[in-house]
Description:
Radius of gyration of chain A: 27 Å
Order of helices and strands of chain A: HHEHEHEHEHEHH
Helix content of chain A: 40-55%
Structural class of chain A: alpha/beta
Distance between the termini of chain B: 44 Å
Structural class of chain B: mainly alpha
Oligomer: heterodimer
CATH class of one domain in chain A: Alpha Beta
Order of helices and strands of chain B: HHHHHHHHH
Strand content of chain B: under 5%
Largest interface: A-B, 15 and 20 residues
Helix content of chain B: 55-70%
Shape of chain B: globular
Strand content of chain A: 5-15%
Number of helices of chain B: 9
Amino acid sequence: xxxxxxxxxxxxxxxxxxxxxxxxxxSDYVEVKxxxxxxxxxxxxxYFSADEVAQMIISQDPSIQLIDVRTEKFYNKFTLNGAIxxxxxxxxxxxxxxxxxxxxxxxxxxxxxxxxxxxxxxxATRMGYQNVFVMRGGMNNWVDQILQPTExxxxxxxxNDQLYQYRKGASLYFGGKADDISSGDSDVKKxxxxxxxxxxxKEVEGGCG
Amino acid sequence: MAPxxxxxxxxxxxxxxxxxxxxxWVLERAGFSTSRKLAGVFYGYDxxxxxxxxxxxxxxxxGLLVLNQMGLVYFDDVWMPTTFIAPTIVGGVIMGxxxxxxxxxxxxxVCAAAIGKIDAMAFIGGIVIGIYFYAFSYEFLxxxxxxxxxxxxxxIGELMGxxxxxxxxxxxxxxxxxxxxxxxxxxxxxxxxxxx
Lengths: 209, 196
């Protein structure tokens, strides 16, 4: 056999052995497979309720970042404490994706209802970003449940009563106005509620003013 | 890495032209414009076709995996046709018959026609007639067959339960064994290289 054939055979065999021992490299570009995405979609594990979000904000949970995907107009009008504004149409902007490209925070998306936030969630999930969630019901639900909770509870229903009491407290925290059964004037027409601006606490002044 | 191929890019035709000319030139230099050399593999007096096609396949497979190891090509980005078992067998038999009768396969016939071989031009005429026959009889003759027996986009390694690397190594060994076998046959029956 000629020497050059032998060299060719050995080279091919050597490369073949090397390839057999090393695995196939997968692309860095991660995209969620359809079946996984489908499971996440139907299992509703992406949702936080407004109550849970309120709890996290009140307890100043350092692990969350809130992203408002509504337009800037809505954002300027009213938003959640500490929320960042990324309008849905700018969601794929690389600067904005930097907010998602981290594994420190749980990102919670919200819009007026759930659908815009759901769209943003799907985009983020398809691109492989982890720890992205949606506030169920969005700001509409937030106003209904947290800012203006209504009394559904009866005295022997401890769970609902506690939830109501909690929402009443949260409402006060966020500057909404809870129905107060003790005042008894529920017939009085309520003014449209505006989120009150929280005032800075005054410094304690001297006692003998 | 820069994309080699982009859909709807106006450079595609130019790339196709350059690659096509290079391919045809290499085919011609390898002697593939001679129908006697091509048909030799069926009659057992010339095994260059087998060697060339096996080498091409091995080179492509090794090249693909090496590029993958270098992080330049990912299998998700490589287009792969669906495998249809029954239509492939029927098509293969028809193609093989044409190959023995005419002495060319479609690509080599164009290559041979380009250097002025009249039999190759007749062969191309046959190809065109065949294409029209297939197209006009598709609905009532071929459609059911064409769509039957799909086993999806599979790789040979996957079917045998081997990883890509092991499959390629197996393929290299099979190719080398085939080369050794045909050389042994040639030696045993004292077949001499034919000059064309």
